[in-house]
Each structure stands twice: as C-alpha cells, then as structure tokens.
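OP here, attaching both records as promised.
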Amino acid sequence: MSEREHYIELHRQLHKQSNLHFAGKSVRNYITQIDSLIVEHRCKTILDYGCGKAQFWPDHWQGKIQGYDPAYEKFSVEPAPADLVVCCDVMEHIPESEIKNILSNINQLANNWTFFVIDTKRAKKKFLDNSNCHVTVQTPAWWQDKLDQFCPRHTVHYQLPK
C-alpha cells in the first residue's frame, strides 16, 4: 500500500466511524469569499476537492457544484474539471510526499481559479491509530512556495496557530 493509499484508508475509517468526522463544515466559513471569486473569475462550475461529506454547501451552489473525496464513497469518483476548485482544510491532510502531485492535479482540474484554506497547526482530531490527522504542518511561506510552483492561479487563506 502506498503512503497516499494508507492515508486515504485512515480517512475512510474515520468517515465510517461517525457522520461528524469530515462533514465538510469548513467551507461554510468562506461562502461569501468563494461567491466573490465565482463572480470575479466568471465561474459557472465548482469542484469541492476533498469535500468530505459535503453537508454544508449552500443551496445557491446546487446544480453547479461537484464533490471529490477519495476517502468517502459517495464522492470517490475522479472529478471533471471545473471553473473554480475549492479546497478547504484538505492540504494539511496530504502527506508531504504527495503535495506536488495533488496541487498539480488541482491545477489541471481548475479551468479558471483555485481557492484554498490551509491549516498550519496540528489537528485536535486523531486517526484511529492515534496519529494526528494533519500530516503536513508547515508555515504559510512553505505553502505559498508550493502553491506558486504547482497551482499558480489561487487565493489562499491560512489558519494560523493561536
């Protein structure tokens, strides 16, 4: 099993354990900002990359949004490209060895723009093996370098340690 597959399996286990795990609630804090990007970049379609259970999409996105999350069966099918790719609280769950590949994939899927929310601290949540759910914890400068290299058309919001 590859490192990527290992972490997908750890996420699958938490999805199955509770409806509360990875419900997709972090997107709700950024709906206004995402709506502004939709207008600014003339986006007709949205992809929520790493959407979890996607329980918090606003009604006005229905019909133009698709979800992708390889650890949740309902959204595990490879996504189609979209005008805007939204990726909220996902990148810190990706092993560092896969960051380049995931960002390159997101960039290929984004016709117009990307929006990221990246947490820069350890998670409170643990996997069933007791390891931390945030496997790549880096500074905003580190993330900015990766985004500029592999996904240059982006807006990013960092969640910083308190």
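Record two, same layout:
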Amino acid sequence: GRYVQGAALAPGFYADPDDERIAPFVTAFREAYGEEPGLFEAFGYEAVRAVRAAVAAGGRTRPDLRAQLARGPGLLGLTGQVAFGPDGERADPPLIYVVDGDRIRTLR
C-alpha cells in the first residue's frame, strides 16, 4: 500500500520475474522444485558459477581457487556483482531495492 512506497529493502535476493537476468533461474527452479527460490538457493547457484569460473581460470587446489576468486573481476550474479576478498569472503555491496508503485525495483 501507500505506506511502503519508497521503502528501501535489502533482502539479499529478490526473485523478480521481470528481471531478464534472474527470470531464467526463477523459472527453472520453479519447474524443478515447484516453489520459489530464496536467498540460499541463489547463493548456492552463484557459488557453483564462481567456482566453475575459478577452475576455468586455472584454479586446481583450494589456495588456487581462493586466489582466483579474489583476483577475478567477479561475475554478475543473481544477487548483484559477485566478488571475493583475499580472505574468501564476499566483498561486493548488496543490492538495494525500492518499492515503486506495484513493483519492487533495483535501486543500485
């Protein structure tokens, strides 16, 4: 309603059916599991993509993978630009959403 207009949200992941980048994942997940994907499913999907990219870049051992993940430019994932620091932790800013009319849209 009108009381949430302009509200800023940071859910970590929002299964936006109108987002061309996210919609294929949401559709495939729904078809496979019969429910909406959430934050943990999105993080799992991105983790696999990040490790695959690190392996493709030459990472073979745990230290190699950590170095590749920290070195790379990251990847554009379901939860924003995915990047890792030298400690292996995510180092990218979270996506912020805003309530705009009947939609929730990405603010940044």
